[in-house]
Amino acid sequence: QVLAGVYPIAQLQDPYSAVGFLGSRLALPPLLQLRPPLGPAWTAWDLCEAWAEKRGYKTARAARNDVARAANGLLRLAAEGRLRLCFTPPGYS
User: Fold this and answer.
1) Is this entry keyworded tRNA-binding (predicted)?
2) pLDDT by residue (tens digit) across 70-83?
3) Is there a domain that residue 27 lies in?
4) Residue 6 lies inside a defined structural domain of this protein
5) Whole-angstrom Cα distance, residue 20 to residue 24?
6) Kindly report the CA angle at 14 between 42 and 22, in degrees rounded to 5?
């Protein structure tokens, strides 16, 4: 619902599940030119942390990567159409 633009991104309690869905459908690291993760595979948290690092999103007090802001930014990119997300219809060959 978030990626379709039905549910507002700002009202999400957990944006990481939507980012995980987006990351499982699109090759985000090469598209966004993100650094490789420390672990064996990309997780939603890794995607958000790498995007926060690339964009320079930092928290005010501790100056850590602001992953919540990065998650919202990634979801806005998809909702606005800057990241193209499309599916083939069922039964299409």
Assistant:
1) no
2) 999 999 999 888 98
3) yes
4) yes
5) 6
6) 40
